């Protein structure tokens, strides 16, 4: 007889704080760069449709006897009717017993671990006195980007960009009673001259801003571009900015933020510094000057999902939370 624990998005929210998620991501990225995980490059297919992409993301951590498989769908350029653009399911397997032990909501899990990844990058790469945030994308990913950055830096003002004015209003209405941060619906790009930290969480196919509008010393968390045709960052950014990634093989093959400038000859390989896990493990150095522009480029890797799912499952098991189903 086999039992599987079901964890909903609300249960995961109650079980795992953003601070805990950031610490989990720190360990996961370090273990990934140290070779402790086994992780094939994810599979992405759109079945010939521009509207929906399907992601298959497996990973294995032998030391914990845990296998994770996340299945995601992402909708682009079509009505979502109030549903998140990214929806998914996480399967957790005990490799020793060859048993499925957990089935977790993958929609919030994705937003949480992506925000937490930007949180640890913000901790390690942004200037400590950073106080102004510019956030592109007021969808589900934007919420956790905001939360994570605010966990790591004393943000006093945040400019919110989105093609939907209603999405910005919902975002501001949600956070206004929860934070002292001044939340501003950005009317144009001129405010970027103030931004110490920029987070991009969109499905854009063209750069969101020009290089010349950026403040010296800004740190950028770029998490939206996951395919070679998607691009949030300007072509010439990496002629001057230092680049750190979540996973080199994935980012250099999958993200248009890197693939496009490389194809056009505007990408300087000398400015690629390494994986964030190598920075955590002190194999490489981070920011080297006050005026240096730093970029953390993330396409999201399966070990993030496995690490966070395992953490949530363990907390749920200890607290007796989650529905148990018999199969």
Using the coordinates shown, work out and report the CATH topology of the largest domain.
Rossmann fold
**Major beta sheet, strand line-up:** 9-8-7-10-11-14-12-13
Radius of gyration: 19 Å
The chain-level mean pLDDT equals 93
Q: Count of DSSP E strands?
A: 15
- Into how many domains do the coordinates divide? 2
Named CATH architecture of the largest domain: 3-Layer(aba) Sandwich
**CATH homologous superfamily name of the largest domain?**
NAD(P)-binding Rossmann-like Domain
Q: Helix tally?
A: 9
Describe this structure in words.
- The protein has helices at 9-15, 18-33, 106-125, 140-152, 165-175, 248-254, 256-264, 276-280, 302-319; strands at residues 3-7, 43-45, 52-61, 66-75, 86-94, 99-105, 132-136, 157-161, 182-185, 197-200, 219-222, 242-245, 272-275, 294-297, 323-326.
- It has 327 residues and is of the alpha/beta class.
- It has two domains: 3-109 and 303-326, ornithine cyclodeaminase, domain 1 (2-Layer Sandwich), CATH 3.30.1780; 120-300, NAD(P)-binding Rossmann-like Domain (Rossmann fold).
- An eight-stranded parallel beta sheet has the order 9-8-7-10-11-14-12-13.
- α3 packs parallel to α4 (140-152).
- The longest helix has 20 residues, at 106-125.
- The protein is globular.
- The mean pLDDT is 93.
């Amino acid at each position: 007889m086999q039992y599987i624990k079901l964890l909903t998005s609300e249960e995961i929210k109650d079980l795992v704080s953003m601070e805990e998620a950031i610490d989990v991501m720190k360990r996961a990225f370090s273990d990934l760069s140290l070779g402790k995980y086994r992780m094939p490059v994810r599979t992405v297919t759109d079945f010939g449709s521009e509207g929906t992409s399907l992601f298959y993301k497996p990973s294995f951590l032998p030391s914990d006897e845990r296998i994770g498989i996340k299945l995601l769908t992402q909708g682009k350029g079509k009505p979502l009717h109030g549903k998140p653009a990214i929806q998914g399911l996480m399967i957790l397997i005990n490799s020793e017993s060859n048993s499925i032990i957990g089935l977790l909501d993958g929609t919030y899990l994705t937003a949480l671990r992506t925000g937490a990844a930007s949180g640890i990058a913000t901790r390690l790469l942004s200037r400590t006195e950073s106080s102004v945030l510019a956030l592109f994308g007021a969808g589900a990913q934007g919420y956790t980007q905001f939360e994570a950055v605010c966990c790591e830096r004393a943000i006093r003002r945040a400019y919110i960009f989105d093609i939907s004015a209603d999405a910005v209003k919902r975002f501001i209405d949600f956070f206004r009673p929860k934070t002292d941060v001044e939340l501003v619906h950005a009317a144009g790009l001129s405010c970027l001259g103030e931004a110490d930290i920029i987070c991009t969480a969109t499905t854009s196919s063209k750069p969101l801003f020009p290089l010349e509008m950026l403040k010296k010393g800004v740190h950028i968390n770029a998490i939206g571009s996951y395919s070679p045709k998607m691009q949030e960052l300007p072509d010439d950014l990496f002629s001057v900015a230092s680049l750190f990634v979540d996973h080199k093989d994935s980012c250099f093959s999958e993200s248009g933020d890197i693939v496009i400038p490389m194809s056009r000859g505007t990408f300087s390989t000398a400015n690629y510094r390494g994986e964030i896990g190598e920075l955590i493990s002190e194999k490489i150095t981070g920011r080297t000057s006050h005026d240096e522009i730093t970029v953390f480029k993330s396409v999201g890797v399966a070990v993030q999902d496995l690490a966070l799912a395992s953490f949530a499952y363990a907390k749920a098991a200890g607290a007796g939370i989650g529905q148990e189903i018999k199969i």
